[in-house]
Amino acid sequence: MSGVGGGYNSGSMKYKDYYAVMGVERGASPEEIKAAYRKLARKFHPDVSKEPDAEERFKEIGEAYETLKDPQKRAAYDRLGSHRPGEEFRPPPDWGKQFGDGEFSFEDLDLGDLFSAFGRAQGRSVRMPGQDYEVTAHISLEEAYRGTEVTLDLAVPDYDERGLPRRAQRSFKARIPKGATDGQRLRLAGQGGKGVNGGRDGDLYLNIALRPHPLFRVSGHDLFLDLPLAPWEAVLGTTVQIPTLAGSVQLKVPSGTRAGQQLRLSGRGLPKPHSGEGDLFAIVQIAVPSAASERERALYQELAGASTFNPRGHFVEAVK
Amino acid sequence: MKTEQVDWLHAHFELSLARLCELSGLTETDLRELVECGAIAPADPLAREWTFSADRLVVARSAFRLRKDFDLDPQGLALAIALLERVRDLEEQLRDLRARIPGGGV
After folding, report:
1. In CATH, A216-318 is 2.40.240.10
2. Which residues contact B23 (CB under 8 A, 6 or more apart)?
3. Any idea which fold A129-211 has?
4. Minimal Cα–Cα distance from B48 to chain A, Å?
């Protein structure tokens, strides 16, 4: 954790190349920086982007832009010199003075947190709400059905008693009640970043993502299951065992069932958060054995000779 | 380790206008403009005091971030929000259709 004290500008921290993040030269004009930001923001803004690492990339871009768009912060950043990204470096002597009394350690300090605190040192009495965070919680379908607990580990920016930034490792459990489904949002009040000068603490938003299930597909609180039937089962009708999240149930398949038909098992889906449950739909597929015995082939041939069924009769009707 | 309780963000819970502003970061003027532009709808637009379905908080937070990060004016913001909502609806329909296709459409 970040230390306070330990002499002027003690310790080193990891360098971040804000110019490289923005894709501009070190001598870029404010207009060029703004144009680069807009282009990158359109591509990586988590509210509009489908890029897999959008959230992380936009955080980097936002952090770089917040520093480079402000002439004072940019000048302070430029005074750090140029290093390789991730390289441990020591800021020049007394560089930290612009963040307050300057008497703090850079050990484990994040450059972005430091620049976000820039200026707060001058106006410490400003009330600021804590930052909100969003985290995706991946849970199984069974966990969504029963309700579950997830353990969350977060490194959140925090401030010491002098308003200086530090990284705080937070670990806590959250109860996900039954009724959640894919894409459901939940809020954990006050579990985001700490507010400053009496500002309210930020919140943590949980985005529920269901892991793929080998049998069931999910839409809202409804579940979908492929139900393969042998041709004779579909023609004659049968009773089959259907797996559900609450154990197996028997389903009566009526005679003359066709491929693609959805047989509904009412209330066998995911529980809904307010009341009731979704449904389970068994989608019929007609399965054909990959190899047939001689006896089976003979029976199919006999059937083919005896049957008047024409599954393509509508082709003729449609092209008359 | 203490287990934290969560609040649902779905249609069965409602938030007052003041609470939605506090949680999203939008000012009351911003929020009223978004309602006027049709980007966010109150539970009952004719009610004397507006309340909002809790899932509107997700939209309001998006609106706050988009306005801040892109310097959008109210009309541009309302358009962006309306388009994003349309994308979300279409994604939901796509997910539903995929779930209904044997083999999951893959």
Report:
1. no
2. A187, A203, B15, B57, B60, B61
3. HSP40/DNAj peptide-binding domain (2.60.260)
4. 26
CATH 1.10.10.1590 fits A1-122, yes or no: no
d(CA B81, CA B94): 20
Question: How far is Cα A104 from Cα A9, in angstroms, rounded to an integer?
Answer: 6
Contact A211/A233 with Cβ under 8 angstroms?
A: no
Is A244 in CB contact (< 8 Å) with chain B?
Answer: no
Size of interface A-B (CB pairs under 8 A): 96
Residues A278 and B89: their CA atoms lie apart, in Å, by: 19
Query: Do the first three CATH levels of A1-122 and A129-211 match, i.e. the same topology?
Result: no
CA–centroid distance for A271 within its chain: 22
Confirm or reject contact between A173 and chain B (CB < 8 A). yes
The residue with tokens 């009341």 is: A275
Q: In CATH, what number is assigned to the domain containing residue B23?
A: 1.10.1660.10
Find the CB nearest B4 among A173, A220, A273.
A173
Chain B residues within 8 A of A129 when measuring between CB atoms = 25
- 8 Å CB contact of A175 and B3: yes
From A69's Cα to the closest Cα of chain B, the distance in A is: 13
Instruction: Confirm or reject contact between A295 and chain B (CB < 8 A).
Output: no
Nearest CA in chain A to B92: A219
Query: What tokens does A241 get?
Result: 């065992």
Domain count for chain B, please give it. Answer: 1
pLDDT per residue of chain A (320 residues) written in tens, 0 to 9: 333 333 345 667 788 899 999 999 999 999 999 999 999 999 999 898 988 888 889 989 999 999 999 998 999 899 888 888 878 877 777 777 766 655 556 666 778 877 877 756 555 567 788 888 888 999 999 999 999 999 988 877 776 666 666 777 888 889 999 989 999 999 999 888 888 778 888 899 999 999 999 999 999 999 999 999 999 999 999 999 999 999 999 999 999 999 999 999 999 999 998 889 999 999 999 999 988 899 999 999 999 999 999 999 889 878 77
- Is residue B5 included in any domain, yes or no? no
